[in-house]
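Re: weekly structure request thread

Next one in the queue (110 aa):
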Amino acid sequence: MDFLSYLTIKEHPAFSLNVVVLNSVANLDKAIPFLQCNNNIHLFLDHDEAGRKATTEIMNRCPESRVIDYSGFYLGYKDVNDYLRAKTRPRHVPAMRSAPGKPGPKVCGK
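Done, posted below.
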């Protein structure tokens, strides 16, 4: 979901990148060979212990690559998706209340 959130924030960027979506840092070992073949690695990992450990591991295991950690972009949120949800949440609209002694608004023709 975080990658889709990123694409939404960027409003469908036109880019040609290799992309790997882990879905879980438990899949990191499977992704390392792919990541090692790239000059630049852009990370959008969660703000939790697992995300920080994965960032460190990628930096250590991909020393020839430039690793760019974008977690500062959504600082204060768990992940990119939480950031997007917070930024696009509709504002609260208070319920309509009638003045004392006045009839309320008609609902469904009643």
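Residues 104-110 have pLDDT under 50 and may be disordered. Strands lie at 40-43, 66-69.
Next request, please.
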